[in-house]
User: Which sequence fits this backbone?
């Protein structure tokens, strides 16, 4: 079951679909908030939207597909010029060895960022191919279904000056059956004390609308500093939040730990962290109540499983970032994963980016399909099909 070929293509489309169109102009804190804004929302500072799509081929002709974010084609180049040849010739069943070779061979230019996203894409493709050739869904290969109900929270309620519109968004999610709702914060340190008070009115409106039986999460998207975050945690403690997500930039691990040790509101982070080594630092520092690795960033399915097991040993919940088929297979197999996130406002959830016409010569039956859902918000998952292609009903 040798890997005979690795192909990577850059596709100039967002892996976030319509969600990116909402986010690129949204108001709210972000890592660049401390600088003068030169455009709307996130659109003025983020890299172009794009993905790398990877196809691996095994000796029996089976193919697998994986993908990751790749705005400027860096991951695509790394795969085609370097990492693809490292994986070629290896036994696809030796996922741990393959991952180690990919990681160690890229240390001089990797360890985080685009190199690990490239590894994520190829790792997902390998697992997809394994499931197909073995005739098993990937969650079975990862240990089997853990038997727990997997809940989906709706991500996200967006800031709006009109609190009645904010209430409407929150109410719409709960009416669809979601038992958890996450909201983006509208204000950060540049807004001072007025921003703190406006944030509190915002979250109070959401809590009042959804009631006490719905879990309420929040996301600061790396846009606060320690002082502002401390004021916010003191103010929101009464609203019984499930967590405050990424209050600080990811590298301020000690800052996250300090906020967590206040004991006011649970702290979630990890969306922008890479590999088990990064998550070991978070665990050792006591920096998070909830870890949020992204399968398309952390290093793929192989590394996400490792992070889940590390967190289990520390009694930490893992609620992976991003809804995707690869994410769901891990969530279904790891007992400390009991939530998943859905990011679209519409009832029809995001499908994976399609390969543009100029590269669509890959046979249709070899493309990875996204999970389809029906009211996943509070149902037990039943999966069908092999590889990473699956249906959740």
Assistant:
């Amino acid at each position: 079951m040798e890997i005979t070929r690795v192909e990577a293509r850059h596709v100039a489309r967002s892996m976030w679909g319509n969600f990116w169109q909402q986010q690129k102009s949204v108001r709210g804190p972000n890592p660049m908030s401390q600088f003068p804004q030169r455009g709307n929302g996130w659109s003025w500072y983020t890299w172009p939207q794009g993905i790398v799509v990877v196809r691996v081929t095994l000796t029996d002709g089976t193919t697998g597909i994986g993908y990751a974010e790749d705005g400027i084609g860096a991951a695509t180049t790394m795969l085609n010029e370097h990492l693809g040849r490292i994986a070629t010739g290896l036994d696809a069943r030796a996922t741990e060895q393959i991952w180690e070779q990919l990681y160690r061979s890229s240390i001089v230019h990797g360890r985080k960022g685009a190199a690990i996203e490239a590894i994520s894409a190829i790792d997902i493709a390998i697992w997809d191919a394994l499931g197909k050739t073995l005739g098993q869904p990937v969650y079975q290969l990862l240990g089997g279904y853990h038997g727990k109900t997997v809940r989906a929270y709706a991500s996200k309620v967006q800031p709006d000056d009109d609190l009645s519109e904010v209430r409407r968004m929150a109410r719409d999610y709960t009416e669809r059956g979601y038992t958890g709702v996450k909201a983006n914060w509208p204000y950060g340190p540049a807004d001072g004390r007025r921003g703190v008070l406006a944030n509190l009115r915002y979250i109070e409106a959401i809590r009042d609308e959804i009631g006490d039986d719905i879990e309420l999460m929040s996301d600061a998207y790396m846009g606060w500093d320690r002082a502002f975050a401390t004021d916010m945690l003191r103010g929101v403690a009464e609203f019984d939040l499930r967590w405050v997500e990424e209050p600080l930039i990811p590298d301020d691990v000690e800052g996250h730990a300090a906020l967590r040790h206040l004991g006011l509101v649970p702290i979630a982070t990890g969306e922008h962290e890479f590999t088990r080594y990064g998550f070991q630092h978070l665990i050792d520092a006591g920096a998070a109540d909830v870890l949020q690795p992204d399968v398309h960033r952390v290093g793929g399915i192989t590394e996400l499983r490792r992070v889940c097991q590390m967190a289990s040993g520390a009694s930490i919940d893992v609620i992976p970032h991003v809804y995707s088929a690869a994410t769901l297979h891990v969530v279904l197999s790891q007992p400390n994963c009991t939530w998943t996130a859905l990011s679209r406002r519409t009832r029809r959830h995001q499908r994976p980016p399609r390969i543009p016409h100029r590269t669509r010569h890959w046979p249709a039956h070899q493309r990875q399909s996204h999970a389809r859902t029906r009211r996943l918000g509070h149902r037990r998952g039943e999966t069908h099909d092999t590889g990473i292609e699956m249906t959740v009903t």
Summary: DSSP finds 13 helices and eleven strands in the chain. The radius of gyration is 20 Å. Residues 345-384 have pLDDT under 50 and may be disordered.
